[in-house]
Amino acid sequence: MIRLAEISRCFQGVIPSMIVTADSRGIPNVTYLSQVHLIDEKHVALSCQFFNKTRRNLDENPNAWVEVYDPLTMQTYRLRLRFLHSEKSGPLFDAMSLRIQAIAAHTGMSGVFRLIAADVFEVLSVEKNEGFLAETPEMSEETSVDGLRSEMRGLQYISEQINRAGCLETLLEAVLESLDRFFGFEHTMILLQDECSGKLVTMASRGYGESGVGAEVRPGEGLIGTVAQQRKILRISGLSSELRYGRTVAREAGNMNPEVPLPGLPDAQSALVIPLTLGDRLLGVIAADDRDPLRFGEWDEAYLNIIANQIALGVDRMSDDAEVSFAERQAAAPAVVPSSAAKRVFTFYANDDCVFIDGEYLIRNVPGRILWKLLGDFQREGRTEFSNRELRLDASLGLPPIKDNLESRLILLRKRLDEKCPDVRIVPTARGRFALQVGATVELVEK
């Protein structure tokens, strides 16, 4: 008998599986499944969502056949099953529900496209359907050992980078660079939670062309928001087929809600999203995606989870006030050269704390209020030197009294200015102190 572990790729959801049931009279019914979840060598769980006919058939006749596909070889396998029971809560239900919740959130079907139950089946036999493509060659022992050694070196290097980082910005960028270098994670991003708004804000990204720094995701929105809300790991293969399935259900249900744009690759085929947590506290999310539908496996999930735990510790360690040294920042950030010809118009909208630069959106919320204070002091008094302490004591900025994440807000503000307005920069000058460098004529407009 074929072991289920030998065909584990078939359970990643890249190609939809089919289930065949029959009622007490032997009349068959065939339909597609959203998930076939591998529990152990003797059991699988099937997602129960909208399949009323399948449910009625199983009540009358507990036997079923499921056909699964190997997404690399297109080899098919037929599982003969016997229904045991349904679970509507607990770890198994939660694990299967998270995937469906994420797809539902992304396709505007939250609360409609949902898991009703996880139906547990005993696997009676597994048969290989002959006549398909040749089997994929097995990985040699030597290759496996070399891969393991490379992964261990990667973990060691990333751990050292996190430990040595002098500031939060350096830490986040070093982690993403290391993931690309050692693990081949070419498209990654880290989002941190803003304590005031509760949103996740993109603080660092790699492999997407434009940085996307400042992009926001609400808890519960899309894949990233669902992981933040549930604080559970999400690994999805065959993402496009999952989204097509969700969109089909949405169309049939007449749902016209707009989709939440997925930060990252617009044509991603697989995604791995992991929460950054310390105990019960959510700090943020690290996400990776790829065009390869089988890019992320169990090893990738395990290793990125280890790295995510180290990132969370590093972020928490630096959240209080870990500014980079003067020499390091100055070497990386040359001074702005004033230009009398340049003019920048900053517009502040007080109703939502948004700042626009020359009519284009720049930043909002607490970072927007911080920038408006700095520019106001510069225009009124000619001030260019500021401290983190005075920002924390300024009640008008609305920083929370505990864990204000001021460092992450300043990083976000620095990066947005670098991208949208290089004539105005924020450059740390010493621990807990920074300078506002202005290389253009500044006009301030408040609305």
Notes on the protein architecture:
The protein has 447 residues and is an alpha+beta fold. The protein folds into three domains: 4-128, Pnp Oxidase, Chain A; 144-318, Beta-Lactamase (2-Layer Sandwich), CATH 3.30.450; 326-446, Arc Repressor Mutant, subunit A, CATH 1.10.10.10. The protein is 34% helix and 29% strand. The chain has eleven helices and 20 strands. The strands form four sheets. Strands 2-1-5-6-7-4-3 form a seven-stranded antiparallel β-sheet. Strands 10-9-8-13-12-11 form a six-stranded antiparallel β-sheet, sandwiched between helices. It has a four-stranded mixed β-sheet with strand order 16-15-14-20, covered by helices on one side. α4 (168-183) runs antiparallel to α7. The N and C termini lie far apart (73 Å). 37% of the residues are buried.
